[in-house]
Structures are given as structure tokens and as C-alpha cells.
Amino acid sequence: xxxxxxxxxxxxxxxxxxxxxxxxxxxxxxxxxxxxxxxxxxxxxxxxxxxxxxxxxxxxxxxxxxxxxxxxxxxxxxxxxxxxxxxxxxxxxxxxxxxxxxxxxxxxxxxxxxxxxxxxxxxxxxxxxxxxxxxxxxxxxxxxxxxxxxxxxxxxxxxxxxxxxxxxxxxxxxxxxxxxxxxxxxxxxxxxxxxxxxxxxxxxxxxxxxxxxxxxxxxxxxxxxxxxxxxxxxxxxxxxxxxxxxxxxx
Length: 250
Prior knowledge:
Layout: E1 3-7, H1 11-22, E2 26-31, H2 35-45, E3 48-50, E4 61-64, H3 68-75, E5 83-85, E6 102-107, E7 124-127, H4 131-142, E8 148-150, H5 153-183, H6 192-201, H7 214-217, H8 220-229, H9 233-248
């Protein structure tokens, strides 16, 4: 499989298409309903682009990089050649009516087309019901990353859940912290040394031992003072729930 069709022109499509191109694969075309972003991406990797299914050129493998709620509709349009999607949560059920080779290649990373990523460090998790096909997918993605692993579908769902906690939820915590500081005319920059130091500490892989703060110490006096300070009832519930989890699972 050397000729690859990229379906989508967003953040994931941007990074994967460039990585595959740089690893010796031919990107036959970018297929996307957004002609503006697909044209920009196609110009970077010097390939054709289209938003018309009738104009899709010959390819060996289609890599689907679209939002989860669009996957099923797109899959139904590509039922003749091998195809994979890149979602960690949609599963193989989107292919239930397909007879072509299919699977999942989930890159465990948050992507932004304007942010450089060392793709060789990104873990790729591969799922497929076809033994030969998933081995071929592993061969392909080992060329762009040093980490490509074949796993069962139920494991993928749990890995994606872990990624949500580690990335999406932690980012939201930073956003909440920033809003609290802004209300006090304080700069988020003041928190960055603390955040960076915490990242350095988690490299020892014994994360639970790194817990600090009032919940870890079971200092309910401080916890109650914080709860009194929080005005937003939604944030109060978040603070209480996390504090309860820490105190009860230490």
C-alpha cells in the first residue's frame, strides 16, 4: 500500500499526510468538503484535491480524518478500497455494512496544524478484525512513528478515556485556573513554573505518589475555605468531587 487518500483537511489530516509523505508514501489526493483548507494542505504536499466523490483518484488506502459525527456518513461513500478512521472513540461499528478491509489507526496526541509535533514519538494504536490488514497497517505507521501497536477494540476505548482525563480535562483545569487569576488581575504566567515542575515530576511514572495539597493532607479546613471562596456552583461541584476522590483513594 503506497498510494494513500487523505479524507479531511483539518489538524489530524495535516500532520498525518505530511508525515506519510515524508516517510515515502504517495498522497494521491486530499478529499474534503472544505476546498480552502484542502487546497492549502494539498499545496504543502504537492498533490491533487477535490470535494467531489466522482473525482477521487486511484488509491490503495484511505485514511479518514474527520469529526466523529461525520465518520459514518463518509465511510458509506467509500466502500470499495481499504479504509481506516483515526478516532479513538468511534470503534469498528461504523464499518458494519462494509465488505472492504477496514480498521482504526488512533494517534494518541492532540493535533494543531500550526503547532509542530515530533510524530516519531506519537503512539499509534491499530485495530482491525482482519489479521493480515492490521499487520500491514502496523508496518505502514511504524515508518512514521517508533510506536505502533496492534490492540483489541475494547482496550482502545479505555486508552481514549485515559487520554481525555490526561489532556482534555487537564486543559480545562488550566482554563479554570486562568479565569480565577484573571478575576484577581493576576497573570497565568505565575502558574507556569508550577505546571512545568509538575510535568517534570510525572516522568518518574509513580504519579499517585506525587499528590500534594489539602485533599492529600485531608486538610478539610482549607478545603472548606476554598469551597466558600468558589462562587460558581459548577466549579464548587468539580472541586468537591476531585477533593473527595483524592481523600477517599489515597
